[in-house]
Amino acid sequence: MLTGNVLVPRPTVGTKGVDRAMSSRPVFSKSEYAYSEIKRRVLADELQAGTTVNQEVLAAELSMSTTPVREALKRLATEGLVRLDTHRNARITELTASEARSLYEVRHRLDPLAVELAAQRRSAEDIGRITGTLETLEPLTAGDGVEAFAAHRAFHRALYTASANPLLVEVLEGLWDKADRYRQLGLRVRSAEPIDVERVREEHAALATAVIDGQAQEAAEAMTRHVASSLGRRALEALEAEA
Prior knowledge:
It is a single chain. By secondary structure, the chain is mainly alpha-helical. It is built from 11 helices and 5 strands, in the order ββααβααββααααααα. The protein has helices at 20-23, 30-43, 55-61, 66-78, 97-121, 124-135, 146-161, 166-189, 194-212, 216-228, 231-242, and strands at 2-3, 6-7, 52-54, 82-84, 89-92. The radius of gyration is 19 Å and the shape is globular.
């Protein structure tokens, strides 16, 4: 919905709030809205991996010209979510075993480092943020929407931020959107069983406790186990088996 020069997207209805988290927040430019909406569709798997997207068709769907859509796609290309061709099309980046392994290898090394540092450096503000995000966090399950993934990200971001290492936080944050696509694939490969849900809930609680209590080694070990049993690892195994 357009109001003067300010575009306020209409809330849409989706599974477990999938459409509300990114498209219901007011934004202040067409290109920003286009970026948010296209990104939402990619992360919600409405624009599936390998799909070719025509800029003109997409602009018509969003009720705007192609210029803000093109700007949005360029921005998404820098994040690795789309690939631009020489025409007026863009392709949603495919999910590959190679990329899944790269993401897993980075997380397997850097996530434990982040929480180890967080346990040593966390502030009272960090502790409040970790506690608050843990309260709203639930293990990811099939059918979860963007809101559930956002809560998962907020908890891990709180842990990363507590490391007081801005460069490390930037690296891990920069990988998150790509990693979320593999998490979704992991859920599609095999739905979470009750035992999985309880395990992940316990892992998150253990991470929060170790960091808050200043137990650096315990935090690093808990995160290593968490990454090793993660949805990203499940997606990697499925992609390697398929290959």
